[in-house]
Amino acid sequence: MASQILQSAPAEPAPGRHEQGPEEAARRDAEGQAYFDKVMAEDSRIEPRDWMPPAYRKTLLRQISQHAHSEIIGMQPEANWISRAPSLKRKAILMAKVQDEAGHGLYLYSAAETLGQPRDQMMADLIAGKARYSSIFNYPARTWADMGAIGWLVDGAAICNQVPLCRASYGPYGRAMVRICKEESFHQRQGFEILLELARGTAEQKQMAQDAVNRWYAPALMMFGPPDDDSPNSKQSMAWNIKRFGNDELRSRFVGMMVEQVKVLGLTLPDKDIRFNEDTRKWEHGPLDWDEFKDVLAGRGPCNAQRLERRREAHDDGAWVREAAAAYADKQRARQAAQQAEEIAA
Ligand code: BYC
After folding, report:
1. What are the angstrom distances between the C-alpha of 242 and each of 51, 161, 178, 203?
2. pLDDT value at position 141?
3. Adjacent-strand bridge partners of 282
4. From the CA of 152, how far away is ligand 1's center (Å)?
5. Separation of 158 CA from ligand 1 center, angstroms?
6. Prediction pTM value
7. How many CB atoms lie within 10 A of CB 115?
8. I need a surface site. Which of 204, 252, 279, 303 has the fewest CB within 10 A?
9. How far is the CA of 316 from the centre of ligand 1 (A)?
10. Considering only CA atoms, which of 125, 122, 93, 100 is closest in space to residue 109?
């Protein structure tokens, strides 16, 4: 059905065709809106060249770029542990995971670029401290057990939040999420396995695992965003089939998953209020510190300054790579053009 619909998709006017009159522009917008509404009603997909309401484009850019930045900043707490991982095997696994995160960032920046935002601009906003990224990465990773807790809880929360995004109405975003979720699910298992090994180790190792779970549990729950009553974007994003569920629904599902898995670990969740509400058929948890969440979003979390500073350094250190890549691409283009000219002349 999607492909049938797409055949009749009114495309955005190509560059250079903007000189159309106001009547023509209004007719195009009306056609575009009708098509867009039909796609939403049929739960089908919008593609980059299709007409879309400016607010839909803006909210996608907001969410996708925030998500891309989260992946890139999210590399830091774990990258700090690659050289300190307890064995060569653990180093190799952690390095592969961090590389996956760089890959996720790249898929997502590419998806955002299809909406018309240049990657350089997104990166400049991040470095200038103007862009959001997930609150979770502003907490420190203190011990090796934190690698387990990040994998199990943070990637676990990411999967819970992101599996529904595989059905997001914007094609490039939904498709990027499919691969990301497969990799996240591997990441979660490696985190679980780190915690399991520690929990089955010495009393000291088990305590280290429990401490890490205690520290990452509440920040992981806050990854799902503010409570629904305080979430200005959820309603419209759900109406546009970008988000499929509210923040509280996903948070509750996550608690339900973790409550079972923690038993296998032989650890506990630091929340005495977890219970399954038989009336609502939902998992409930204890209160979260939303003032702390707001502080972290405002740049006052434990590691905000450090994370941004490190990103700036990495960006500056990588300048020569970007310049070299651009020079190489120019050279390739010039070579191809010369070759084509020779072929035409022959
Ligand atoms: N942190 O109206 P709401 C990963 C902002 S990467 C920071 O509910 P929305 C991983 C929100 O942006 C994980 N900001 O917003 C990587 C909005 O502000 P703006 C990242 C947050 O968009 C490496 C305001 O609060 N995942 O898993 O409907 C290693 C109001 O919120 C947060 C994604 O980005 C937060 N936690 O819903 C390991 C998933 N929560 O933009 C793992 C994609 C909210 O109006 N994103 N805000 O200034 C989403 O699903 C949604 O954007 C959210 C928020 C559920 C996060």
Report:
1. 16, 12, 14, 45
2. 98
3. 277
4. 19
5. 10
6. 0.92
7. 18
8. 279
9. 27
10. 122
**Cα separation values, 171 from 30, 175, 237, Å:** 22, 6, 15
Q: Cα(54)–Cα(76) distance, rounded to whole angstroms?
A: 34
pLDDT reported for residue 7: 45
Residues with CB under 6 A from ligand 1: 62-63, 66-67, 70-71, 74, 101, 132, 134-135, 154-155, 158, 161-162, 222-226, 231-234, 237, 243, 247, 297
Rg from Cα positions in the chain: 23
What is the rounded distance in angstroms from the CA atom of residue 128 to the CA atom of residue 112? 19
CA–CA dist 282, 276 (Å, integer): 6
Mean pLDDT of 95-117: 97
Separation of alpha carbons 43 and 174, rounded Å: 13
Helix (H) / strand (E) containing 238: helix 234-239
The atom number, within ligand 1, closest to the CA of 224 reads 55
Distance CA(229)–CA(247), nearest Å, equals 10
For ligand 1, the distance from its centroid to the CA atom of residue 81, given in whole angstroms, is 25
Binned at pLDDT 50, 70 and 90, residue 56 comes out as very high
Diameter of the chain by CA atoms? Answer: 81
Residue 63 Cα to ligand 1 midpoint, Å, equals 7
- For the chain, give percent helix, strand, coil, nearest 5: 70, 5, 30
End-to-end CA gap in the chain:
48
Torsion of CA 264, 193, 74, 111, to 10 degrees: -90
Instruction: For residue 153, give every residue at least 6 positions away whose Cβ sits within 8 Å of its Cβ, in sequence order, or none.
Output: 191, 213, 216, 217, 220, 258
Asked if residue 69 lies in contact with residue 126, where contact means CB atoms within 8 angstroms, the answer is yes
- In the chain, the amino acid numbered 139 is Y
Q: Per-residue confidence at 205, pLDDT binned at 50, 70, 90? A: very high
CB 14 within 8 A of CB 48: no
Ligand 1 binding pocket mutation candidate from 101, 189, 297, 308 (most atoms within 8 A of CB):
297
